[in-house]
Design a protein that fits this description.
Distance between the termini: 40 Å
Number of domains: 1
Largest sheet: 6 strands, antiparallel
Number of helices: 0
Shape: globular
CATH class: Mainly Beta
Structural class: mainly beta
Order of helices and strands: EEEEEEEEEEE
Radius of gyration: 14 Å
Number of strands: 11
CATH superfamily: Jelly Rolls
Length: 117
């Protein structure tokens, strides 16, 4: 299935205030790529976690506090971060406006493991 109509993909709540859509994955015909969009409402967060593969995140809209490993930064739309496989990372929307990101993984077999702080 080479064409995906994004508005027809159902959003799922991943964490409180965090809704995601996966556009490209094994079910869509991909063999080595998973990609989607996440919307984070004001004051929501994606808690500290790791993946079995690296993750690229493009911040399209909003301002987010990002943690990757031991580094913490404030990121705005137009910024990309790379979280290496196995490295704890998180995103927090501490502002009053929603944020939107695109995430991509070089695998269709992605795992997420929450990490205690």
């Amino acid at each position: 299935m080479p064409f995906i109509i994004n508005r027809q993909v159902r959003a799922e709540e991943r964490f409180p205030g965090v809704k995601g859509k996966t556009y490209v994955n094994k079910e869509a015909g991909a063999q080595n790529l998973q990609m989607g969009e996440v919307r984070m409402s004001a004051r929501s967060q994606i808690p500290l976690h790791t993946h079995n593969v690296e993750e690229a995140i493009i911040i399209l809209e909003g301002t987010l506090e990002a943690v990757v490993g031991k580094e913490k930064r404030i990121l705005r739309g137009g910024t990309t971060l790379l979280a290496p496989a196995g490295v704890p990372h998180s995103l927090a929307n501490k502002g009053g406006k929603s944020a939107r990101i695109i995430n991509a993984y070089p695998s269709v077999s992605v795992t997420r493991n929450l990490v205690s702080a």
